Amino acid sequence: MSVIACSGNGDSPEKDKSQSHDTKDAAPVTLIAQIRKCSKLYTADFKVHKIITHDDEVKLKGSVMQQDFDIPLPLGSRKVAIPMDATIKAYIDFSDFSEKNVKHDGKKIEITLPDPQVELTETRINHDEIKKHVPFLRSNFSDKELAEYTTQGRKAIISDIPKLGIVSMARESATRTLVPMLRQMGYEDEDITITFRKDFPADNIMNIIKIGDKG
Question: Is the pTM of this model over 0.90?
């Protein structure tokens, strides 16, 4: 689910068509000032639900006469299912936005956006909904084991983030926010270009993922 939210103290520019020409002449300076007031532009918010499962059985392993053996013992298999909810957010940090991000050529303007940031803000386990099956002859899952399985689940969620299309959503959401601002400054849609830097690693999102509260 995509959302657009701006954190900061900036006010939206008021539209006044009678002053569009003067505003347009000062567009780079005015635009930079307005955008920098918006410290973070939140572009996407994903809620992910994952069931972490694990099962194991006791085996007797060894080697006799250079022959390896791996024999399951009749003690039964332990199983556990851990429900995990995670929140993933994407945002663009405009705190360092400057004239280097704006190219102004007559009627045309090009905005190069800062790199989007992706953050796993929290993960939560509903302990009341954890399902376990432990045979009578087996020991229960320890807190350490459950913590290890939870860590594996978080890693699995992080590895799936590139599949969410979150960078494309960041581009689209930022465009929907900035284009109306540029229209108010007198620019036509066909004269507006908004893009990320040319060498942005869109196919390597793992490099920009931040890990927040572990929940």
Answer: no
